[in-house]
Design a protein that fits this description.
AB_hydrolase_fold, Rossmann fold, hydrolase, alpha/beta, hydrolase activity
């Protein structure tokens, strides 16, 4: 967990959800950010370094940030559900955070499998007439899972040397959506020694494109 993380629990559709909350230092959040971790069957947890980096990036932008272990991970109950139950549980988190911080915009972010979860949730929320403010997706799971379309202002960050989800797969998915992909040179799928670039890029692109904070 990050230094400022506070652990809490919610009840999801399959039982207990182990969660953490990160609050901005000034205590007055400008928005809510939900972070989704990589695949639970391949070691993915809410303490994954990329997930923690995304949480720190949004805290730095003034967002109160929440993440949780998917079903069967850590102290979270239930078993892996191919993304279906994971989206249901992320919606539980979405509703809970809006209850705690009413009226704030919500950002969705995720890494690898977590991008699939968040893209599906955004599709569901849009159909309900309450879409999230914006998405930030790292290591987008195109070609691994059936990624739905995402809004044109979505931030897409990918590693040049990713051999788990290749750049070609991401470009093939993003091309018809006409969404730019920001490539980190020399980065593999897990962004070893490149995490600072993720944090900086999310902060810069969010502000530059109209999010909170001074324009760059």
């Amino acid at each position: 967990m990050n230094k400022q993380s506070q652990k809490f629990y919610l009840t999801g559709h399959a039982g207990k959800m182990e969660c953490v909350l990160d609050e901005p230092e000034d205590g007055t959040p400008r928005g809510i950010a939900l972070v989704a971790h990589p695949h639970p069957l391949y070691g993915g947890t809410m303490d994954n370094k990329v997930a923690q980096t995304l949480a720190r990036a949004f805290v730095g932008l003034g967002y109160v940030t929440a993440r949780f272990n998917f079903r069967g991970v850590g102290a979270s109950e239930g078993v892996y559900d191919d993304g279906r139950g994971e989206v249901d549980d992320m919606e539980v988190m979405f509703d809970y955070m809006l209850q705690q911080y009413p009226g704030l915009p919500v950002a969705l972010s995720g890494f690898s499998f977590g991008t699939f979860v968040q893209a599906q949730l955004q599709q569901r929320l849009t159909a309900q007439g309450r879409p999230a403010e914006r998405l930030a997706l790292v290591g987008t799971a195109a070609g691994k899972w059936p990624m739905p379309p995402v809004p044109p202002d979505t931030i897409l960050i990918h590693g040049e040397l990713d051999d788990t989800i290749t750049l070609a797969q991401v470009f093939e998915w993003a091309r018809p959506l006409d969404i730019p992909v920001t490539v980190i040179p020399g980065a593999d799928h897990f962004f070893h020694r490149k995490l600072v670039h993720i944090k900086n890029l999310v902060a810069q692109l969010w502000r530059r494109d109209g999010g909170p904070g001074p324009a760059l």
